[in-house]
Structure formats: structure tokens, C-alpha cells
Design goal:
heterodimer; A: 115 residues; mainly beta; 6-stranded mixed sheet; 4-stranded antiparallel sheet; B: 114 residues; globular
């Protein structure tokens, strides 16, 4: 079975400051990793994903994440945040074999940007 | 290209009524997933369907909940005799048969049970 832990439920950051949202996972098999963003009262939008290959993954809106197998982490980073980045961010994991189906989500991190 | 469509976006029901939530996947996607998001929580998997088949329903409550994905038409999540604890946002996601790694999410249906 897989599980995802997002260590911070809320992260307040000043505009133009860097941010890191932490995510750790556990799994006995190889996994695919995802970050989704949810703006207020909207659905989930895929920010980025790690399937294989380079451990540094670049996504939309200037976000990137690094897969660290030894630390079982997939932290999300952005060097300079904007007010429009205010949203809830979900880390997610899925078993990396073809018959897998469900995605396991973390509990989310609410990113609030202060001007 | 239209994304995943869900309707209604908001649904209000009284206790004991039935709720029907619809999901039209991305054109060409034959895999549909339903997730539930309770207030202040992350999404929890409910069920995974392919056309006319339920593949994994390990996250579905044993009673009152059912899902289908017919050969023609949208996928339906049906909740009978709703209770207040069913109030949540219900999200549908879809993926194509050739690339199941990534799921694309709809805007969700927010169900409120009075």
C-alpha cells in the first residue's frame, strides 16, 4: 500500500519569496508522483509529474519538484511566488505498474501569499 | 479539446433523497475515476471504471453508493438516501487507454445535504 504525507497544512509566504512545499511518501513498489493545484472552488489541475528519468521535474507556472528516492520525498519548489499562486496543493502517488488505478492523495498544503 | 465535464456543479438534496452526479470524460478517454473530497481534507479514491465495467471499487461505501459507465453516455455516480455526511465535493477524472499514468480532473460536483 502507498501513503503520502504533506508535512505542512498551511504555508504563508510573502510575494516574490521562494517557497518549498514538502511531501514524503511510502511504498513497497516503484511509484509515479504528482503535484496537483486546486484553486478555490475549482477542480484539480496537474502541476507536474515524475514517471521516470531525470529526478528534477519542471512543471507549469514556474514550479519544479525533485524526486529523492533515498529520502522518499518529492518536494515542490518555486523561486519566486506570485499572488496568483494562492491555492491548495496536493501531492499524490500512484503505483508504477500498468494495472494500477487509484491515486493516493496527501491531505494538502494551503499556500497563502502575502503582498 | 473539452476537458472532463461534470454536472451539476452544485447539488442540494434533503436527507433521504437520491443524488445523481454525471461525468463526461475527455473525448477518447475510456477510463473514469471518482474521488470524494470531504471538507478540509484531501481526495479519497472511490471507484475506477472502464466502459461497462467496474475495475476497482475498493473505495466505495458498501451501501447506498453505486457507479456506472455505460457504453454510451456519461459515467454516473449515484447516492441513494443521502445523509448529511455525504456532503462533499465529488471529482471525476479520466485517462486514455494508451497513457494511464496521468488522470485529468473535472471541476467537481459539490453536494450539500440538508
Amino acid at each position: 500500500a502507498q501513503s503520502v504525507t504533506q508535512l505542512d497544512s498551511q504555508v504563508p509566504v510573502f510575494e516574490e519569496a521562494p517557497v518549498e512545499l514538502r511531501c514524503n511518501y511510502s511504498s513497497s513498489v516503484s511509484v509515479y508522483l504528482f503535484w496537483y493545484v486546486q484553486y478555490p472552488n475549482q477542480g484539480l489541475q496537474l502541476l507536474l509529474k515524475y514517471l521516470s528519468g531525470s529526478t528534477l521535474v519542471k512543471g507549469i507556472n514556474g514550479f519544479e519538484a525533485e524526486f529523492n528516492k533515498s529520502q522518499t520525498s518529492f518536494h515542490l519548489r518555486k523561486p519566486s511566488v506570485h499572488i496568483s499562486d494562492t491555492a491548495e496543493y496536493f501531492c499524490a502517488v500512484r503505483p508504477g505498474y500498468s494495472s494500477a488505478s487509484k491515486i493516493i492523495f496527501g491531505s494538502g498544503t494551503r499556500l497563502s501569499i502575502r503582498p | 479539446n473539452a476537458g472532463v465535464m461534470q454536472n451539476p456543479r452544485h447539488l442540494v438534496r434533503r436527507r433521504g433523497q437520491e443524488a445523481r452526479l454525471r461525468c463526461s470524460p475527455v473525448k477518447g478517454h475510456s477510463h473514469v475515476y471518482w474521488y470524494r473530497q470531504l471538507p478540509e481534507e484531501g481526495l479519497k479514491f472511490m471507484v475506477y471504471l472502464q466502459k461497462e465495467n467496474i475495475i476497482d471499487e475498493s473505495g466505495m461505501p458498501k451501501e447506498r453508493f453505486s457507479a456506472e459507465f455505460p457504453k454510451e453516455g456519461p459515467s454516473i455516480l449515484r447516492i441513494q438516501q443521502v445523509v448529511r455526511g455525504d456532503s462533499a465535493a465529488y471529482f471525476c477524472a479520466s485517462s486514455p487507454p494508451s497513457n494511464q499514468e496521468t488522470q485529468y480532473f473535472g471541476p467537481g460536483t459539490r453536494l450539500l445535504v440538508l
